[in-house]
Design brief:
Blueprint (H helix, E strand, L loop, with lengths): L2 H11 L4 H8 L3 H8 L7 H11 L3 H6 L9 E7 L9 H5 L3 E5 H7 L7 E5 L4 E2 L2 E2 L4 E5 L9 E6 L6 E8 L6 E5 L6 E6 L5 E8 L5
Parallel strand pairs: 1-3
Antiparallel strand pairs: 1-2, 3-6, 4-5, 6-11, 7-8, 7-11, 8-9, 9-10
Length: 209
Amino acid sequence: MSLGKRIADARKTAGLTQAQLADRLSVVQSAVSAWEKSANEPTLETLRQIAFETNSSVVWLTLGIKTPERQGMDCIPIHSSAAISHSHKGDRENQPVICFPSHWLRGLTDALPKDLAVLRANDFSFEEVSFSGAFVLIDLRVKKVGSPGIYAINHPASDEIRIAWCQRRLKTGKLFIFNNNPRLVIAEDDIDDTDISIVGKAIWGGRRL
């Protein structure tokens, strides 16, 4: 089965029309049609989004392997921006996942798969880093802002988990939160730790963070 046929199969299994999938991916319907006819191929990031929207696996879409978690892969659950929690094993098995080569993941972090989650970034942008809806790997063990970096936070201004740059002011010990995406500006200073909840720290979003 070709890549195009697997994309079509995943879409149909998810009960989506080409137009509905195109809308979720923010592309035109003709792009989906071209992928399914193998006239063109989506980027790896688009494949990740297709996998998310169709509750399928990136590895299955690209390679046709249906059980990558048994072939040297760690499958990390994809969570909505509304909530992230440590799921029971049974719940995790029913969640959409992104699978990473185990040896690559071990080189990136010492966290176990159960301590990681994948979150779709909400158009986060900071200097040269821009995700614009990409998937971000989160280390759920980090519950406090230590070194400056990109964190997943529960922010009082939103019901969703946000991805933002956080750092601690040396003089006051309070937090500075920043996201310079012009469509989604978060820039606040002198934030107390009790004002937000740290969900985890971003460690990968297409590259090491």
